[in-house]
Amino acid sequence: MPVKPHKAMVLAAGLGLRMRPLTDSVPKPLVRVAGRPLLDHVLDRLAEAGVTEAVVNVHYLPDQIIDHVASRRAPRVIISDERDQVLGTGGGVVKALPLLGHEPFFHVNSDTMWIEGVRHNLTRLADAFDPERMDILLLMAPTASSIGYSGQGDYSMLADGALRKRREHQVVPFVYAGAAIMSPAIFDGAPQGEFSLVRIFDKANEQDRLFGLRLDGVWMHVGTPEAVSAAEEALLESAA
After folding, report:
1. Does the CA dihedral 235-173-112-31 come out positive or negative?
2. Where does the pLDDT of residue 1 fall: very low under 50, low under 70, confident under 90, or very high at 90 and above?
3. pLDDT tens per residue, range 168-193
4. Are 69 and 77 spatial neighbours (Cβ–Cβ below 8 Å)?
5. What is the rounded CA–CA span in Å between residue 167 and residue 52?
């Protein structure tokens, strides 16, 4: 049976160094793309997928984010405050686990954006997530058609969706699009303190429980000021 996550974790604690000078006085999740903060684009996607509660972690310029989401009701936002410590992408989730509960949850980067295809991608993730076979299901974007991305990819994907991590010097066709469904159980035994979420991805991969779903639409990697302009242009074209 497909899962229907009602909770989500949104990573919003990064320093946004590559987005400078836009992030000199504004946290990256509040950088505007097409007139709206990146964070609002993400929270809107989660609301469309039926999420009622989103845990948002904060570290850099935290009060701006806290004030921004204070009146949000769809989804309701709970703050995981990391202003006194740097926890990384993995440690941030571990700290938030008591707020996320025991069921699979959406996990979304606050700076990920995509143009939807025929069906909403988060709904597709929920329909495809099989807790009997999977601990993590990643939304994967084809590198060739993504906007603002020029890397070598993250994973290759088998016919059943199983992922295989890119080896050194290898080029693979898919990049992680910054949205996923995760089972809290995969964090059993995870360390406290700062560590990367890649460590958890690798654990699931080693156990053959890391899968991917190809994004339907176009992914936009909004990591630099130049990428903001590229994303805005793509959004305008898609709406024309």
Report:
1. negative
2. low
3. 888 899 999 999 999 999 999 999 89
4. yes
5. 38
